[in-house]
Design a protein that fits this description.
The chain has 11 helices and 19 strands. The chain has helices at residues 22-25, 49-69, 77-86, 96-111, 121-126, 141-150, 179-193, 287-293, 295-300, 305-311, 330-333; strands at residues 2-5, 9-10, 28-35, 38-45, 92-93, 157-160, 163-166, 199-203, 206-210, 218-223, 230-236, 241-246, 250-254, 257-260, 274-281, 316-321, 326-328, 337-338, 345-346. The two termini are 39 Å apart.
Amino acid sequence: MRLTHRLALWLLTTGLALLLAGCQREQLHQQESYVFGTRVEVITWGTPEREARAATAAVLQEFDRLHRAYHAWEPSELTTLNTAIAAGTPQIPVSPELAAMLTDAKALAATGDQLFNPAIGQLIALWGFHTDTFAPARPTPDALATAIKAHPSMADLTINGTTVSSRNRAVQLDLGGYAKGYALDRAATLFRQRGIHNALINIGGNILALGTKGDRPWRVGIQHPREPRPLASLPLRDGEAIGTSGDYQRFFELDGTRYCHLLDPRSGMPARGTQAVTVLVTPRPGAGTLSDAASKPAYLGGPQWRAYTKRYGIEHALRVDADGRIEVSRALRDRLQFEQGISATIVD
């Protein structure tokens, strides 16, 4: 059996290829951390060192706050809410921020036929993906059947101001497919408030760009889902965000079968049929959040992946199917530089 975590995107400005001349490096400030169960990298460009360090520290402090406040299984405001839902509490007070996040997540879930479903925390726990050190194990058929029959979804929630109620006690919220994108948007806000206009924020492969890297756009690469190299690279422009859902990010192998953390709420099983889906969200409010959430329905939608990205108003998208075949929207194909030997079919 095998257990692993891998990042969804190569960050071509660091690690894989630091494409900066010596004099340019003096303008770049880079800092790494570990939060949300993944590696975080924050880069600023063209800002004096002292200001860059202070702004980056504020961003990383905000990431830590979000991680602690909305953790799905360690004591947090979210676990308090989950306990109250399970107990059948009729009116549960929450913070204004959490109320806004749940309202947004509920709308995103409805757009994607509930395939993006932060309400399936119980199912995530059954498969063992609710911890950072998950153990390879399949849930029992009875436990799985019970979880599926309960059919928890974001539609079960009612949010009135800062009060939450649920008509389904089986709803257990896990914002793991939402929080990284939300954190990208918070980072962008904090940087702009501090006068930082050129930055790249990478949270486990969910990336948001601000401004440029000197006289060039930031450049990132889309991870090959089966090889330690990128499929392709592309420029990421001011205000754009990119995110990937893939079966190689969190998974275990048992008896020769791969079980990934992307669970299909319809079957209760780890999704199959797709290795990875990448979406690029052009500048708009909540671009980071959308890049995180919208990739899930597209991934779970299999052959209908492109229809789901269109529902979210996303024209730049790519899918790698179970056999490694690559499909890409025309808009994204025009932006990509594929690695040698890699080709794709255009899908509109």
